[in-house]
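Extended Data, panel c. Modelled sequence:
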Amino acid sequence: MGSLFRSEEMTLCQLFLQSEAAYACVSELGELGLVQFRDLNPDVNAFQRKFVNEVRRCDEMERKLRYLEKEIKKDGIPMLDTGENPEAPQPREMIDLEATFEKLENELREVNQNAEALKRNFLELTELKHILRKTQVFFDEAEHGGVVSQMADPSREEEQVTLLGEEGLRAGGQALKLGFVAGVILRERIPAFERMLWRACRGNVFLRQAEIETPLEDPSTGDQVFKSVFIIFFQGDQLKTRVKKICEGFRATLYPCPEAPADRREMAMGVMTRIEDLNTVLGQTQDHRHRVLVAAAKNIKNWFVKVRKIKAIYHTLNLFNLDVTQKCLIAECWVPVLDIETIQLALRRGTERSGSSVPPILNRMGTFEDPPTYNRTNKFTKGFQALIDAYGVASYREMNPAPYTIITFPFLFAVMFGDTGHGLIMFLFAGWMVLKEKPLAAKKSDNEIWNIFFGGRYIMFLMGLFSMYTGLIYNDIFSKSFNIFGSYWTNNYNFTTLKGSASLQLDPNGTAFYQHPYPLGMDPVWQLAENKIIFFNSYKMKISIIIGIIHMLFGISVGLWNHLYFKKLDNIITQFIPQIIFLSFLFLYMVILMLIKWINYGPTNDEQSGPHCAPSVLITFINMILFKENTPPVGCNSDWMYAGQKHLQRLLVILALLCVPFMLVAKPILIMRNRKKQHYQLNNHGTENGDVEGAGGAAAPNPGAIQGGGGHKEEEEEMSEIWIHQGIHTIEYVLGSVSHTASYLRLWALSLAHAQLSEVLWNMVLRNGLAREGWLGGIMLWAAFALWAVLTIGILVLMEGLSAFLHTLRLHWVEFQSKFYSGLGYSFTPFSFEIILDTAQATSED
């Protein structure tokens, strides 16, 4: 749990593995997921690395598995997912896997090719069957009604052809011999096909077409297409050649069609027989394909896991270096210090599995590099840590805001969203996701919106729970109050006064109310008061300021722990102390004034110190900054809240203002003094070394050279840059103290807006459903409640919830984390099979 408050301590290690044991050891580390390897071959091309051939083999196996998966999905066969996590196979097992996948792919491709050929043959026979049926009608019409001689008026392309009688078929006593072609064409190409025939053949052909009612399956794509049968009559070989070229251009399929009716009937019977035989063969082919795919579907998930693990191992081995003997692999990796023993045990298991007798060696190394940031999380804290990392990953060993965010985030959200009814809806929805966590996670939906909700289920759960609490404090449940304890207000008027007055003010000095405050939250009588908004406006605004000041002071205090851990005592003097003084002496003092005002100016006080004499905190604060005196209201003793307030306020302002130049110059001056001191010590030390060298004849080592020889020497930042940086930081903090305090007023604004919107929705929608009685009133209530429920969930829960969520996120990222959090680190990304498999699955689903 300690790493949740501060990232894990990391160390850079050097790992020596025997070549025979490297594969098994890396496999064990992948199952463990606690080691981040560094690339020791950054300048080597990916195609020139040692295990590039093995990676290519894995790519080829993965391609074959994707082909099998696509065919399985095409047939709608469920792929068995037992949830097993098989270990990475040994290198010698790759040959067996390759042979299995090769056999399945070849068998499936052969079956698909045969099926496609059979389907193509079936399509041709089906089209021929329709041609023989449809053309029989055309020939019957030709025998009874005559044959065509020419197209109609050439000026009208879409004109139907004219049919002439038998007299028109003879010229000079000789009968005209017409040829014809028959075929099938896509239905949408018929109009263009007909126009092209007329233009190219100058109207000397006759086209008849009829639609095929049932769609036909395209054997190449499997799509259902609609086609039409056509027959074209013409005279002469020249027109025949031209017609066939046009048919070819429009991708029409031509079929032989006998002229004699008896031949057509005989061909039709043969076609039907062949279609029945093809149906039988197609059924057997589909059954064989289905059996192959069902057998593959049982193991394809495990095969994917195995291949991806093998590929990940070889990718990792390509990051290693070979020693000069080519028998040892050398790796460098970041590991958590607390897990070194666990990692060594995993390496030992890998060595035993490989049968190697040489134990692996894991040595810790010194380095000047910044280690990666690693915060251990569980399913509850993971969502909150993701909110922090979205802003920026914490610097190494920097204080982690996530544990505090677990409480402050849902609380600040609830201050803005405070409604017990709306919070209950959110609480129940998140609670359902938490209870059904395992089955919902097993579905692995690719819906992005759902994944966002499911990933933040624990955040939503706490937001709903806290919203129910703040809703009880506000006594706001779907814009209505619950009279749990009974109202503590007492009526001071008689019946005659109540009946004759439209608006009366209850005396807050009632004994029952003043001596016995309402036990929890707001008295329900405020829901009926006309000055409800005025009261809640003042109450929520002051509460927002109080919460904001406490939140910012806590952020500055967290920064103190950073200074102490990194032993930056200078920052405590030059940053923390003046910052805390500036914020406390001005803004925390304003909070104290609010509390004093609430306590001292009660309804039981005399007229000269009653509630009407209470000074405005805002005006008092402004006058305090401007060194102006307050003017007491008429009839009041004084505008000061306590004795000595004037002198104390001036002292606080002076001390707070003195902190500004102190923050501006203290740190740069301190840095200058330290640098001069270091240079003085180095010069003196150099002089002493020179004396020794002159006396003894041997040169003493130079501390600067020693530091440089370590491979890392930090360059000193220019003093001008330090002054500029400090000036920016000081101005940002001073102005930010004012703007950030005002920024917390969003707690007040959104809370008031949410409550008013809820009340408007009740009054304008649901109240209308309660206006009538009887059966008509029941129907109206049903319709009004349905509309109210939809608008409540859609607007008040989803849209208002999203708005409050984003505002809460801003308060944490800007107002809170800016006080102590730099977020300049980089995440610890270990070599983990779990992460690799999840990423691969998400990519394949996309």
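Confidence is low (pLDDT under 50) at residues 146-175, 690-714. This feature is highlighted in the accompanying rendering.
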